[in-house]
Predict the 3D structure of the following.
Amino acid sequence: AAYFLRFLMVSIGRTLKFKISDHTVLKENAIFSIWHQCAFCLFEANPISNSAVLTAKGGPGDVFTKAVEIYDAKIIQVPFDENPSEAAVSAAKLVHALKEGFNLMLAVDGPNGPRHKIKPGIFFLAKRSKKKIIPIGVAASKKLTLFFRWDKYFIPLPFSAVAIYIDTAYINDGSAESLKAAMFEAENKAKQMLKS
């Protein structure tokens, strides 16, 4: 399954036309928030250099991790269970990666939803590392949406355009609702980029 997913990501990804908003104003690494549904095309687009990606340990997470090993990103695989000691170790790994200078890509409603419900971990990481949160919006001109999945994961169709909007102006106030609104607005900006 991992090799099939990798084949899809590479073979489709190399046909896509990416439009990425200007983010040169960012002078230091940060935590980039995405929705779980749009993870497919971000590895091929590679909008943020020197990135670290959080993936789940076990089951589908292992499949996804194996599939994306070929990409130029540091993979941090952590368990998503209720074990407090493992959760503490995982948080320490992520904070350490940020302090090392990596940009952290975080699917804030992953790994199992609910869809578009932001987990509190991103705010904890931002506070511990003293790094900014940067919302990312993704839109594809043509896509296949997997409606049977909890996240409505989408796969851009070959030769379609994919726009990625990076909201460098967002100010973290610790509110999940304001981050959610900013992520929806970033998604709308990405859709507008497709029209230009």
About this structure: The beta strands are 17-20, 31-34, 51-56, 74-78, 103-107, 133-140, 143-145, 154-156, 161-166.
